[in-house]
Write a structure and sequence with these properties.
- The protein contains 6 helices and 3 strands.
- With about 100 residues, it is α+β, with helices and mostly antiparallel strands.
- It has a 3-stranded antiparallel sheet with strand order 1-3-2.
- A hairpin with a 2-residue loop joins strand 2 (about 65-70) and strand 3 (about 70-75).
- It starts with 7 loop residues before the first helix and ends in a 5-residue tail after the last helix.
Length: about 100
């Protein structure tokens, strides 16, 4: 019997990456932790719009943050990125699929 794996978590990851602004945030965070004010300046984006995108990325587990007073600092979450890599790897064809590639 084949078990259907839960697809909600990978779908949330891929959804989080489906927007150019969110990809730009990920790109900026590759170099390390950033204050939300730095991200606002780098992305030339309104703080409210940026907050929405940061929330989506946090809920997907791709970034995390800590707060100091009114400032929030964001960074890439290594576990979330590992989950993303696992989700992509799970989409690769199986050996059985490769053997049956020529079938109708």
């Amino acid at each position: 019997m084949t078990r259907t794996r839960d697809l909600a978590a990978p779908a949330a990851l891929f959804h989080a990456l489906s927007d150019p602004t969110r990809l730009a945030i990920i790109e900026r965070l590759r170099s390390g932790e950033r204050c939300v004010c730095d991200l606002t300046d780098l992305l030339d984006s309104a703080q409210s719009r940026l907050s929405f995108h940061l929330k989506v990325l946090r809920e997907a587990g791709l970034i995390d943050c800590w707060r100091e007073g009114r400032w929030a600092y964001y960074w890439l979450d290594a576990d979330g990125l590992e989950n993303l890599a696992d989700a992509v790897k799970a989409l690769q064809p199986t050996k059985a699929a490769a053997r049956h590639a020529g079938c109708c």
